[in-house]
């Protein structure tokens, strides 16, 4: 008790109260000024740190009597009480002077802290500008910046595009590895929200997530993805509550541009995505128009259970493409729309899963057509719920093209998707491949190259680029892109068969045979080897490959049967299979205008008639 009496007598409590009050006021004013002048968040953090360090020093100073001249003489341990004439202790002016002096002193501390912070920011900005001009930040500032990227090979400066960003997978802080799909899913949804900002160049999900679990510096990631900023963070889920911590880092200097922690109910997760995207856009000084904030929330859900089922479906999208996986993800999306019948994005996921299942795992032609009909109805439902959802229009375009051979309808939907989602690499990729297969190679490859810039580490992007280059008859480059894709996905048998088909078109039968014999036992391998063996004079082996193809896939491999018979020079059989393919709407006819394996039939009247019917300009 004597200690507390002494604390009070020495004025420690008065100094503590004064210090905390002025510190709170300084931080509030500082926060407002930092927002107005768009100063870096770390400056405010530095002020807070200085004030925190100063607090125990102020208390120590009060105990040691540093402020005796500022406090009432009667309450200090180092001076005798002073009384007015008549014995009354002095009050009023001495007390006010103490408070004024304390406030003045603390304001001086705050001003010094702000000056230090601004100096710190100036050094960071100087280094940042120097690096953009080709001068390393270390040389400009006199020391290496934490997290700054190293000079490019050969001394070239790293100059990523303005307003470019990568979103790394947010860490799962829930303590349950089974919640990984949830943190990854929320990260992907945030990434998709950022792609709605036209001024932002956002690295695609597959490339950004390829660094998950790897000990790679932010500078290396930025160089690999060619971006100037990186967004990272964490997700902690507790029932229907979620805490998201996000921080935006300048990839050139390593300095924090912005950071924030959000505590939300999962019912408000759509608004949270928009809030974070708005803050990130502001930190990058990119314009976020009102219509884009509306588009970010288009087609979403406020139902936590529906969101959970949807994110699980998205996780399964990336887990593989075997039949069990496709069925499971289809069921997950179906559960999401059953919980929330207004969840448009879940309808898109369901429609794509239905299309993939019909294309890859159904062989009966009636079943295939029924599968495409269900997929079409599903994505049309999504569009009816969210007419401005770009991914829904792209999904409908794919169904119309591959399930109905409706080139003109697909073109209309792709054009709409490109307007609504111009920065979505999947939309760019699908539209580009579509155009290339219809003979519009220049426009198609331009879209695909844009997708490659946004998603450079994605095997599927390079695979479809290879397909498009085959449609434009650039076989050497098609092989090179297929090999790039294999560097990311070494066991993809479809790519190996694709390389074999390109070698066939180049006339290199030895390389074609080597590739096709190494491919998976699928329609690509059977088609390739049937053509190669026939050209090598091994007719019985060629016939055996054709028999296996027909037995396993029946009429659903009609387009491949056309290719084989046309390359064998058996025009009558090729035309018979052409009629079958046209009747069952085989997706292999989508590239009828550009497939070089169909060339022996191009002089046939019936082939010309069908080709005109499927052309974009017919």
Structure, explained:
This protein has helices at residues 2-9, 12-36, 41-64, 93-132, 137-141, 180-194, 205-209, 218-225, 269-283, 290-296, 304-317, 323-339, 344-361, 365-385, 390-404, 407-420, 425-437, 441-454, 459-471, 475-488, 493-506, 509-518, 523-535, 539-553, 558-568, 571-584, 605-614, and strands spanning 164-167, 171-172, 201-202, 229-238, 241-250, 256-265. The protein is of the alpha/beta class. Among the domains are: 2-80 and 93-132, no CATH class; 164-296, ABC-type transport auxiliary lipoprotein component (Rossmann fold, 3-Layer(aba) Sandwich); 298-422, Serine Threonine Protein Phosphatase 5, Tetratricopeptide repeat (Alpha Horseshoe), CATH 1.25.40. Strands 1, 2, 3, 4, 5 and 6 form a 6-stranded mixed β-sheet that branches. Strand 5 (241-250) and strand 6 form a beta hairpin. Helix 13 (344-361) packs antiparallel against helix 14 and helix 22 (509-518) packs antiparallel against helix 23 (523-535).
